Amino acid sequence: MRLQLASCIVFTFFAIGTNLSISPSAKAANFKTNFTQDEDTSKGDIWLDSITQNQVTFDNFSLVNSAEILSNTPIIGVKPGNTSTPGPRNNNTGAGSTDKGDNATAPVPVSGLNNPTNSQITALLGNRNLNNLIDTEDDGASKINLFFDSDIQKDDTGLDNLFFWERGKNSDLGVQAIDSSGKLVGKFLKLSRFQQIDAGYSIDTTEISSSQDVGSWGVNLSQLGVDSLSGIQIIAKSQANKDSENYDGPDYKVVARKKVRVPEPGTILGLGMIAGISALLRRRVIKLQ
After folding, report:
1. Report field, pTM of the whole predicted structure over 0.90
2. 252 strand-pairing partners
3. Is residue 200 classed as helix, strand or coil in its secondary structure?
4. How far is C-alpha 149 from the chain's CA centre?
5. Residue 153's CB: how many other CB atoms inside 10 A?
6. Per-residue pLDDT reduced to its tens digit, 234-277
7. Which of 129, 207, 228, 231 has the fewest Cβ atoms surrounding its Cβ within 10 A?
8. Across the chain, which distance is largest between two alpha carbons, in Å?
9. β-strand 173-178 against 162-167: which pairing, if any?
10. What is the distance between the terminal CA atoms of the chain, rounded to a whole angstrom?
């Protein structure tokens, strides 16, 4: 009877552990950005070290390694003496351009008064410096394909797959998955300014006159309606271009998370219970003998 009871307990806990291990994880609402900031604070380099979400910290990021500008409101009316910095000679036209902290390092010069190229966008987004980003003007609209250095796959970790930062916390951003050929897949997702989470730092870049707080969004592949993607299409809409919405010029940075399997708490708990009960069962069998 004791042996049968112990066996029943083992089976019960095994069933519980199994159920916990296969239950879908709840979508996390936010994440923590872990970074290293130099002495220039908002004007200098801010390096992304890792992200913490659901009490899991990871740094296995896939970065942008190719960009394709599909449309981008051009910079116009540049005159001798114009600058892209705040002041009386400022020319603030166009849509998406490359930008950086006033004193931050960057792999290429920012586009400033020239329309950005695919390679410039790739360079500014394809690194971990959170003070390298794409600046979109309020009256400009853009559509850009961004490809990551590896395919992004859905997994069972309960963690988000894409992580976005937006300077100012005052703009929206459109996102849709693309395959390796740049074809749209899945469904379009609008990231709302009102759903941003504070990222814990501020930046002062060349196109603004003071520092602004940075917000963040986390997105999983289920939200995009796909199991995998090679990249994303980023969309910024503008009423000036007669679109139905105005995204108010998102200024953004993005990285993706490479696939990693993290044991769920239910799995660990279930296996621990099984091991403990199994040990008790072995002791009772020996005693009976």
Report:
1. no
2. 134, 166
3. strand
4. 14
5. 14
6. 999 997 766 568 999 999 999 999 986 655 555 545 545 555 55
7. 228
8. 98
9. unpaired
10. 14
